[in-house]
Amino acid sequence: DVVVVGLALDYCVKATALDAVKNGYETSVVLGATAAVDLEGGDGDRAMTELETAGVDLVA
Prior knowledge:
60 residues, alpha/beta, FAD/NAD(P)-binding domain, three-stranded parallel sheet, globular
């Protein structure tokens, strides 16, 4: 299993989690231990949608 935390949800965290899923790992992102940069409004929300669609477990 892979548990991902850190900055930035909409860039580094998203890329790491998606790579882990693609490599066959059960993957979780701890939302309370990450934050989005949101360079463009809504980037964080779009990242969470993409992660959920890919099968990443979003943990509060």
